[in-house]
Write a structure and sequence with these properties.
Elements lengths: L3 E5 L7 E2 L4 E5 L4 H14 L36
Parallel strand pairs: 1-3
Antiparallel strand pairs: 2-3
The structure holds zinc ion (ZN).
The site of zinc ion has 4 residues, from loops.
Length: about 80
């Protein structure tokens, strides 16, 4: 399964979910910063990164274009 990118409210989901191979980037990040953040996470996962973009472990470029979610995720209310 390829690594996927999703945009989420910071702190609402793990940065990387091994079950779904999903990297979560903060909502509202611009494209350039999204690549920097994704590359940092991928480097932590020991996925070698090329000079440009963000690369899956299979060598494919990841699409980091922010998308408006089709369905809103319920944000769990935190106590206090
Ligand atoms: Zn892949």
């Amino acid at each position: 399964m390829c690594i996927r990118i999703r945009f989420a409210v910071p702190g609402s989901v793990p940065i990387f979910d091994p079950a779904t191979q999903t990297i979560a980037l903060p909502l509202g990040l611009d494209r350039a910063r999204a690549y920097v953040a994704a590359r940092a996470v991928l480097a932590e996962l020991a996925v070698p990164q090329g000079p440009f973009g963000a690369v899956c472990y299979c060598g494919e470029q990841l699409d980091l274009t922010p998308r408006i979610p089709y369905q809103r995720t319920k944000v769990m209310a935190h106590g206090a």
